[in-house]
Design a protein that fits this description.
Layout lengths: L8 E3 L5 E3 L2 E5 L6 H12 L3 E3 H9 L3 H8 L1 H16 L6 E3 L8 H10 E7 L2 H8 L12 H19 L2 E4 L5 H16 L1
Parallel strand pairs: 3-5, 3-6, 4-5, 6-7
Antiparallel strand pairs: 1-2
This protein binds shikimate-3-phosphate (S3P).
Length: 190
Amino acid sequence: MSDEPHLATNGDRNGRLLSAKHLVLIGLMGAGKTTVGRRCARRMERPFVDTDDVVVALCGMPFTQFFAEHGEPAFRELERQAVADVSASPTPLVIACGGGTVLDPENRRRLRATGTVVWLQAPVPVLANRVGAGADRPLLAGDPLRALTRLEATREAAYDATAHTTVDTGSLDVDDVATAVIAAFEGFDA
Ligand code: S3P
């Protein structure tokens, strides 16, 4: 355990000391960031934050509506603000990032500097199966499988550049993935 001052620690219910860095989850839509993040937060006794929820709070409307009325660049602007806000939290958080947060270099820098970043991965057909018709996900409108295939190809390098470590969620049992994520988080920080 580091004794650097910025790495203050907190304890979980077993009395272990955990890093005060945020646990940050990234990955494509359908990777399980929100579901797994909530589970990890409960187990780690940390608050959970989803950047999509922060965007909704900032714009005051469902982000699908915001997307439709103002477009993706305006959405990304709010998302950048959301990442800045949550990553600045002095309380260690579990942060689920919207799938596109890693496209922005400033987001990548902040997330890596303040958190341990875990990339949740799954094969595209599995992701497509999980998101179904893609309701509430404007970038998946029409043909989610095709859209996710394209997004994976264009974003892979950005996920790779942001992640400290990866966890496979292909056969998603939420508890097992949460266990693997927490182990990766602790292992990376050790
Ligand atoms: C997006 C992912 C969504 C949401 C928005 C754009 C993306 O979040 O931020 O629809 O660009 O991948 P989830 O990954 O939580 O679905």
